[in-house]
Model the fold of this input.
Amino acid sequence: MSDGTVVSTRNLKPVAFDSYGEFRVVKVGTMEIWDGEELSLIREGFRRLMEEEECRSMGVDMNYVKYVPSGFFGTLCDWHDKGVCIRVFGPLPNVKQMLWFTTFFQSIGDNVHELRPSPVSDFEEASECEPGQEPVITDDSRRTTKNARSSSVPLQAN
Done:
């Protein structure tokens, strides 16, 4: 579509783009359980925002979402690795309790959370993505980010 709207083939509802301050927010709709299709729509929405609007501050509206596919966090980290500041808006308690969420997102108020690719200490308060400040990606920070994401947690038998 020429207006930049991304359309879902399953339910034919377009993904909407909204603004929240300097952030462009992808809104998938009222689906409670996302699958690979919603994930593809988010990827395509982010791609369009970056290519057509040169947007470097993006987010996802999660006001209705209770479950996300396993690749969701990886998708957000991939965009962060490209220098995009990522926030999620309105995540529900189910999402907030997921291990990847509790480890890599920091609340910045008003039920808005910002992706931090390495665990955040209690002493870090300032946002990595302040308006007008572009994140700097270096080979060292990518190695650190990938190591932080790929660390494994031992499983315990019941």
Remarks:
- Confidence is low (pLDDT under 50) at residues 7-12, 131-158.
- The beta strands are 6-7, 14-20, 23-27, 57-61, 85-89, 105-109, 112-115.
